[in-house]
């Protein structure tokens, strides 16, 4: 219980840092006053200018919440993939889900399609569709190569497809130079210009998806012992795996469609959580959401403050932080074994 409470405190602290720090510093008492003013209509102190209110409420808060939601969604998706494929290197990123989602977003950007949907809804729809198609293609190709669908084969095929899709994104940016900057945005990941509209779309998709995944915690615990053991205990392995892969793809696809391709969060956060809280998914899923959200919020804070006023792509920050951190975890685990 102490670990859970401490984790909540750390996550809230990181989220508050992400909201209050930046080129314009907003003190904690001022941020509380602005929040109460916006939510309950209380009066503002005279020291708080309208510009500060606008920066805090229209830019900082929705951006930080978006980063937290996306980080949490990617981490939960990574935890699901690692459980289903029984491989510590499995994730939505290595399965090509993020790249496929970014490709769908790039096609929408280039074509300028606005039919049937508002543009804000079309991007996540295209991202999820292409992410799901990428996963199905990876599974189909893996089944043709290896009928047993071993995790090593799936991960290897997923990484190859991910590289191929990334090459297609690079090709599209060179063929359509007018949209190259926007495509580059999706390839590197960023939370720039994220607002309440994005939060209003992401939250109703990500939060229920994570909750539904959490409801299958027992099944995921059983499937970690292998498909044969799970079948003997009455788990419909094929159906549960397909459903969980679709849910994980939904969370990743929608996130990547709004923020671009961001890696390492879905690899690092679940491993950290398992070392702290154990392997039971009833704890792994919610704690992965919290730790992943906090990690992403911190990465976004660094992305917009380290070289301020210039902004670093958040995907580069997560890679710089996540790669050595993951290596330390891997080497420590190998040493312990």
Could you walk me through the main structural features you see in this protein, from its secondary elements to its overall organization?
It is a single chain. By secondary structure, the chain is mainly alpha-helical. The chain is globular and about 70 Å long. It has helices spanning 2-20, 28-40, 50-85, 97-111, 119-145, 151-175, 180-188, 196-215, 217-223, 227-232, 237-259, 265-277, 281-305, 314-336. It is 77% helix and 0% strand. The mean pLDDT is 83. The protein has 14 helices and no strands. Helix 3 (50-85) crosses helix 12 (265-277) and helix 8 (196-215) runs antiparallel to helix 13 (281-305). It has one domain (65-336): Orthogonal Bundle (ABC transporter involved in vitamin B12 uptake, BtuC), CATH 1.10.3470. The longest helix has 36 residues, at 50-85. The relative contact order is 0.16.
């Amino acid at each position: 219980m102490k670990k859970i409470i401490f984790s909540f405190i750390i996550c809230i602290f990181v989220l508050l840092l992400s909201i209050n720090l930046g080129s314009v510093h907003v003190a904690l008492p001022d941020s509380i006053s602005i929040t109460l003013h916006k939510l309950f209509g209380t009066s503002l102190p005279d020291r708080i200018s309208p510009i500060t209110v606008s920066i805090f409420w229209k830019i900082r808060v929705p951006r930080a919440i978006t980063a937290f939601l996306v980080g949490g969604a990617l981490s939960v998706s990574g935890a699901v993939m690692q459980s289903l494929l029984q491989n510590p290197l499995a994730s939505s990123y290595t399965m090509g889900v993020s790249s496929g989602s970014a490709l769908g977003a790039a096609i929408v950007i280039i074509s300028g399609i606005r039919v049937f949907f508002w543009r804000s809804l079309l991007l996540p729809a295209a991202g999820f569709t292409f992410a799901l198609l990428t996963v199905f293609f990876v599974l189909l190709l893996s089944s043709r190569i290896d009928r047993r669908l071993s995790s090593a084969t799936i991960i290897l095929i997923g990484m190859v497809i991910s590289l191929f899709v990334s090459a297609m994104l690079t090709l599209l940016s060179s063929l359509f130079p007018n949209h190259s900057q926007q495509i580059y945005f999706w390839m590197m990941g960023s939370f720039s210009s994220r607002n309440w509209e994005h939060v209003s779309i992401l939250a109703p998709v990500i939060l229920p998806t994570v909750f539904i995944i959490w409801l299958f915690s027992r099944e995921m615990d059983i499937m970690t012992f292998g498909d044969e053991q799970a079948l003997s205990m009455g788990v419909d392995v094929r159906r549960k795996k397909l459903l969980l892969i679709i849910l994980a793809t939904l969370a990743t696809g929608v996130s990547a469609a709004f923020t671009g391709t961001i890696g390492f969060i879905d690899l690092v956060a679940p491993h950290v959580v398992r070392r702290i809280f154990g392997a039971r998914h009833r704890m792994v899923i919610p704690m992965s959401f919290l730790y992943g959200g906090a990690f992403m919020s911190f990465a976004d804070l660094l992305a917009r403050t380290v070289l301020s006023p210039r902004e670093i792509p958040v995907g580069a920050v997560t890679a710089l932080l996540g790669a050595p951190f993951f290596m330390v975890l891997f080497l420590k685990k190998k040493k312990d074994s």
